[in-house]
């Protein structure tokens, strides 16, 4: 090969060598960039994993919060229903108190008659008798300086049988009085409670409460009122709710109290 030809070949190779050198330098720059970026990429991957985990946790917490909100809403609705029922019961109780005040003007203490008896009217209209109720008599006394009492009548549902039968319950309680220190305690006299027949046939329903000296109900009162004592299943409620009832007329039924101060076990008629 002549000198001139070698010079021409060398002239053609120079651009190729320059390109190769430039590519090598570019690769080196890229490698350096990769080396610089690699830690950052790893950090980003860890951040992605962490964020994904936090997102799942937030999703779980959000679902739990929704469940709690639903439960709270349900409880609020239930409490609202209970409050409404409580308000309704208060209104019914106030109505019963107003009815009692109408029946018993507050003028002077109510005393048992000479035979030891007293009849108390209770107002419960036929349209209301099927709803639960609880009513009290005014306070009454055996004598001006004697024992003090109060009657309580209410409806009671018996769930012990499949019939779920409702009964009239009648209770009596001793009240604290100013003359307890001169009275005999435990209270020693039997008490008769009667649902009065208003038809004139004398078909009164009567139960006797025997004075039990061991019962706190007959002890000298240490608070305003002793524990009530009485008959839970005095009679089925339909005795009053029946439209042809002989025990309830014009929305009023009568309970007669008789205290056997002579202990002769007799019950006054009438």
What does this structure look like?
Helices cover 39% and strands 23% of the residues. It is rod-shaped. The model has no long low-confidence stretch (mean pLDDT 84). It has helices spanning 3-103, 238-241, and strands at residues 110-111, 117-123, 134-136, 140-141, 148-157, 166-175, 191-195, 205-209, 229-236, 248-249, 252-259. The strands form two sheets. Strands 1, 3, 4, 5, 6 and 9 form a six-stranded mixed β-sheet that branches. It is of the alpha+beta class and 270 residues long. It has two helices and eleven strands, in the order αβββββββββαββ. The longest helix is centred in the N-terminal third of the chain and has 101 residues, at 3-103. The protein folds into two domains: 1-103; 104-259, Apoptosis, Tumor Necrosis Factor Receptor Associated Protein 2, Chain A (Sandwich).
Entry summary:
The chain is α+β, with helices and mostly antiparallel strands and 270 residues long. It has 2 helices and 11 strands, in the order αβββββββββαββ.
Can you tell me the CATH topology of the largest domain? Apoptosis, Tumor Necrosis Factor Receptor Associated Protein 2, Chain A
Task: Give the topology string: H per helix, E per strand.
Answer: HEEEEEEEEEHEE
CATH C-level category of the largest domain? Mainly Beta
What is the number of helices? 2
Indicate the CATH architecture of the largest domain: Sandwich
Topology:
Layout lengths: L2 H101 L6 E2 L5 E7 L10 E3 L3 E2 L6 E10 L8 E10 L15 E5 L9 E5 L19 E8 L1 H4 L6 E2 L2 E8 L11
Primary descriptors:
Apoptosis, Tumor Necrosis Factor Receptor Associated Protein 2, Chain A; 11 strands; alpha+beta; 2 domains; single chain; 270 residues; 5-stranded antiparallel sheet; 6-stranded mixed sheet; 2 helices
């Amino acid at each position: 090969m002549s000198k001139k030809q070698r010079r021409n070949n060398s002239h053609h190779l120079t651009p190729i060598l320059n390109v190769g050198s430039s590519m090598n330098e570019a690769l080196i720059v890229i490698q350096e960039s990769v080396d610089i970026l690699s830690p950052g990429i790893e950090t980003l991957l860890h951040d992605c994993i962490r964020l994904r985990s936090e997102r799942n946790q937030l999703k779980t917490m959000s679902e739990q919060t929704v469940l709690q909100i639903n439960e709270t809403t349900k409880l609020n609705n239930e409490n609202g229903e209970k409050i409404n029922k409580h308000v309704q019961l208060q209104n019914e109780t106030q109505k019963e108190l107003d009815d009692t005040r109408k029946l018993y003007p507050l003028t002077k203490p109510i005393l048992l008659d000479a035979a030891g008896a007293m009849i108390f009217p209770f107002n419960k209209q036929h349209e209301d008798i099927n709803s639960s109720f609880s009513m009290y008599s005014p306070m009454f006394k055996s004598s001006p300086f004697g024992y003090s009492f109060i009657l309580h009548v209410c409806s009671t549902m018996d769930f012990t049988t499949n019939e779920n039968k409702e009964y009239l319950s009648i209770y009596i309680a001793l009240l604290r009085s100013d003359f307890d220190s001169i009275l005999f305690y435990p209270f020693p006299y039997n008490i008769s409670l009667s649902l009065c027949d208003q038809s004139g046939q004398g078909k009164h329903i009567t139960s006797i409460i025997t004075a039990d000296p061991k019962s706190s109900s007959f002890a000298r009162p240490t608070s305003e009122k002793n524990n009530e004592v009485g008959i839970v299943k005095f009679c089925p409620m339909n005795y009053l709710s029946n439209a042809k009832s002989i025990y309830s007329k014009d929305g009023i039924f009568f309970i007669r109290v008789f205290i056997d101060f002579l202990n002769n076990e007799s019950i006054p008629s009438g």
